[in-house]
Design goal:
- By secondary structure, the protein is of the alpha/beta class.
- The chain has one domain: Aldolase class I (TIM Barrel), CATH 3.20.20.
- It has 13 helices and 10 strands.
- It has an 8-stranded mixed sheet with strand order 3-4-5-6-7-8-9-10. A two-stranded antiparallel sheet has the order 1-2.
- It is globular and about 60 Å long.
- Bound molecules: iron/sulfur cluster (SF4).
- The site of iron/sulfur cluster has 15 residues, from loops.
Length: about 325
Amino acid sequence: MDYRRILKNYFAILDGKKKAVYLECKQIRVDFSKSDSIRELWSKHDKAVERWKSEEGAQKTLLDLKIEIATRIFRNCHFCERRCGVDRTKVAGNCMVKEALIASEFLHMGEEYILIPSYTIFFSGCPFHCVFCQNWDISQMLNGLYVEHEILSKMIEKRKSQGALNVNWVGGDPTPNLPYILKVLKLCETNIPQIWNSNMYCSMETMKLLKGVIDLYLTDFKYGNNECAERLSKVENYLEVVERNHLIAYKDGDMLVRHLVMPNHVECCTKPIVDWLSKNAPMSVVNVMEQYRPEYKAYEYPDISRPLKRSEYEDAVRYAKEKGLCLI
Ligand code: SF4
């Protein structure tokens, strides 16, 4: 399969033919001030994203502007579509996250082969509460350390020198930690692709801030209907949000979609997702994953309390092939 043709930006950065988009974001000059209202900041942001070229005389960059907006959102949190509205300098919202806590960071060799070695940064906390979470010890309880921005930016440089192909922001979920990520990138100068490895329950505002920062969206498309999402991840309006964000990601960068096939969910979840992708994002790379195992509270839910059958996985892959998806 010609992944190079589909994920052309990602491979152009690896080949040294293109800069990671966050480095370009630092070159775009924008005038704004702390006294600007959030409406004025968004207006300047959207115009700068459209313009995407240097503006002589301006002292700040588009990345600075994104950091200022993210700092405001942090005080009235709506990074994800739960839209808790809390001031996270004081309290946590549904995801439990105040400041970013890093549970682990390492060169990951277990991701898709085109991504490894991947410098993977696992944040603690998550806006989802999946009853089968395979990382529940970091996503459903706070379990990590605050790492200064400067230290993590130096770690990125060090890991690149050790062979990392990319920076893989994950968790839990990276969404609550966007201000932290932007501040780290402000201090980085390494030409290395940035990966947003997420459940994609981001707000529209988060998706706008990611544009011009993220090179590859590594998405986790879990459910083909809202009932399963509510029951198993305790989240509302799943499909509306996640489909919207996949369309944005597909337009804004390269996209590699992951779907974990779950027992008894091939008809209600896997096949509708495959149908949607083949219709709306036919040029994305898709990983149909078979490694489901009952974890955390999965034993309390009879439909997902056993491992996946081989026949279920084969049915999922056959269907995805029939629909013409580019599988990895
Ligand atoms: S990121 Fe956390 S605090 Fe912010 S809206 Fe989402 S769940 Fe709530």
